[in-house]
């Protein structure tokens, strides 16, 4: 039988933790949702146990429990990180005297190399889009922007007119944690974007192009959402029978890989991608090395 007082307190802690993640940690809505779900599951598992009074061995029991559910190492690591963040919050709020999960180690993960596209593959995808319709032209510009700028899909869909500085070939974006950065675009993409703004967007829906107005819109004049961009990409890949799985994020991986292959400095790539840590950018050096190995093995006469 539930102790309803404990259950009410758990919900109160959860609500306060959610506010903390949003206002103080500045996490994205996606990350907040994942953290809250992880902590909520843990609190349900505790049943009538008071979360303020658990000992490290109780958390070890929970780890044993979730490891029986065949989660990936990545998922287990995130669940541990979520609960550690929750107890760090409780400790900072002085609701507990010490953090009972602080000593629990997050399992090491084997990072998979990111998927990327070769330049000719990207060009095949872009050529496969029918630009004779307003939506087709818009979709072509969107995918081209992802490819030439390295933007995340959420950063692109959130663009407003005020974010553009096309005279300087610059776009101001807000990444994870609302961090601001400048991305660059080539003249060809800029010309296509200007044509979309001046001619094509009104064919989709005639709207006032105020500084705060969304750049990419649907036929109702509302901001084009991430899911619509993913759907457009999926339809394009299907139409040209493209053999690989491609998500919008693959364009970002391809952008970073291309820069490093052409000799770009790792710190510059980090800045363009908006990575807070150089470690997140270094994985692309492994992708570049792997591509060199692939080319060597298929072209050198004495390669094994």
Write the H/E string, N to C: HHHHHHHEEEHHHHH
Q: Strands across the major sheet, in which order?
A: 1-2-3
**Are there runs of 5+ residues with pLDDT below 50, and where?**
none
Q: What form results from the Cα inertia axes?
A: elongated
CATH architecture of the largest domain: Orthogonal Bundle
Task: Report how far the terminal alpha carbons are from each other.
Answer: 66 Å
Q: Kindly give the count of domains.
A: 2
Largest sheet: 3 strands, antiparallel
Rg over CA atoms: 24 Å
CATH homolog superfamily of the largest domain = Intergrase catalytic core
Number of helices: 12
Provide mean pLDDT, rounded: 86
What proportion of the residues is helical, as a percent range? 55-70%
Description:
The chain is mainly alpha-helical and 304 residues long. The chain has two domains: 89 residues, Tyrosine recombinase, N-terminal domain (DNA polymerase, domain 1), CATH 1.10.150; 181 residues, Intergrase catalytic core (hpI Integrase, Chain A, Orthogonal Bundle), CATH 1.10.443.10. It contains twelve helices and three strands; from the N terminus they run αααααααβββααααα. It has a three-stranded antiparallel beta sheet with strand order 1-2-3. α1 runs antiparallel to α2 and α10 packs across α12. It is elongated and about 65 Å long. The model has no long low-confidence stretch (mean pLDDT 86).
